[in-house]
Amino acid sequence: MFDDHLIFTPDMVDLSRSPLRNGIAEPTFVLGAFNPGLTRLGGGNLLLMVRVAEALRDPVKDDAVRAIRWTPERFVLDRYPIDSVTMDDPRFFSVKDRASRLIGLTSLSWLLPVELSPDAREVVAVHYDHAIAPSAEYEQYGIEDARISIVGGAWQMVSCGVSANRHCSVLRRSVDGLEYRPMGVVLDHQNKDMALFHGKVGDRFFALTRPLGESYIAPPPDSDFAGGPSINLAESPDALHWKPCDTGGIRARKGSKAARKVGGGTPPVLTPKGWLMLYHGVDHEGPIGAYRTFWALLDRDDPTRVLRVEDDDALIEADPSLTAALADRMYLSSPIIFTTGIADADDHYIVASGEADLACRISYIPKTRFA
User: Which Pfam families does this UniProt record tie to the protein (predicted)?
Assistant: First the structure.
């Protein structure tokens, strides 16, 4: 029996080597080091692509709340009068009196490659020289939640770019799994959970997507589904130009532990029974809900055909014992596990998640669990 453990925590980040030192001289801290992409390198070691959310220790100064923003020259601080915002959540503030909801982030996220041993038991190296910072306007307020897939002979990494103009999906490619080259925006609508399949379907790239909106159409009253954000699919000839699939996907189901909303988790991997995908589902517990990890199987030749959905019992749940030593750094009260990476390890999968929006967790799931 394998045991889950935290492999990377906020206090393991050396902020003296942060890309934000280019322009930000004020004290900062790591709000979270979490939601890591996961891949296996050519030599056998694993690589976590950790999201580092770096925040100002004093976000409010001189009657203004401040947000960190990338510019081509350096990082700068934007100022919003304190009486023009509300600050009810430690992750963001909301601008008052706007027809559309506007939020500002209290941290800016960048990506830190962390190399692990083949069994994900120890950290081998932290590659600050390959850290990925915002590099274009569409990432001016940060880069979030990388997912890494090996497709077409290359490592394909999708992350979420955050800016005032768009909330988009951005692709980067690598020939070694460590150094990534930006390929630009691939989805231009608000989409936080794009993940490429670990391999092609026929001659096409496939990806999970989850477009978001301010409102959703209610399903029929007798439907099994609850409505709201759902997991969709898209296909592409080159991973750059995407067409949404006409059918298919995973939806929040009434009466399940994922009745509030669902979203993508790991890049789907091919098994003898079809494409295995781990995804997150949220219930109605508390203000933001409890986040859990569930799983589904998609047809190997037509991934829009959903063969099986397991959303009654969670595959992975938050474990407060793992973060007990970090109690003084906890900033969210809801139980949260957000799974973002998977790697094959013979008779089991090594799964990487963000625990409590705070640290990186490794789980070991026997393949027999998906029988």
Answer: Glyco_hydro_130
Contacts of 325 (CB under 8 A, 6+ apart): none
**For range 119-132, the mean pLDDT:** 98
CB count within 10 Å of CB 70 equals: 26
At 351, the pLDDT band (50, 70, 90 cuts) reads: very high
> Which residues, other chains included, contact 52 with Cβ-Cβ below 8 Å and sequence gap of 6+?
13, 18, 30, 32, 33, 109, 110, 111, 112
Residue 368 DSSP SS3: helix
Determine the Cα–Cα distance for residues 189 and 185; give it in Å rounded to an integer. 10
How confident is the model at residue 2, as a pLDDT?
62
- The mean pLDDT value for 340-369 works out to 97
Percent of the chain with pLDDT strictly greater than 70: 99
DSSP 8-state class, residue 348:
E
Q: By C-alpha distance, which of 49, 48, 178 is closest to 116? A: 48
- 309 Cβ contact partners less than 8 Å away, ≥ 6 residues apart: 250, 253, 294, 296
Predicted structure pTM score: 0.96
Instruction: List, in order of start, the domains of the chain with CATH numbers.
Output: 5-370 (2.115.10.20)
pLDDT in tens, 219-277: 999 999 999 999 999 999 999 999 999 987 999 999 999 999 999 999 999 999 999 99
Residue 348 has pLDDT above 70, yes or no: yes
For 225-289, the DSSP string reads: B--SS-BEEEEESSSSS-EE-SS--B--BTTSTT-SEEEE-SPPEEETTEEEEEEEEE-SSTTT-
Please give the distance of CA 165 from its chain centroid, rounded to a whole number. Answer: 20
| CA–CA gap between residue 343 and residue 351 (Å, rounded) | 7
Beta bridge partners of 182: 172
Average pLDDT, the chain: 95
Q: What length does the chain have?
A: 371
How far apart CA 293 and CA 289 sit, in angstroms, is: 13
Q: How far is Cα 156 from Cα 149, in angstroms, rounded to an integer? A: 5
Cα–Cα distance measured from residue 369 to residue 365, given in angstroms and rounded to the nearest whole number: 7
Closest CA to 123 of 33, 198, 195, 53: 33
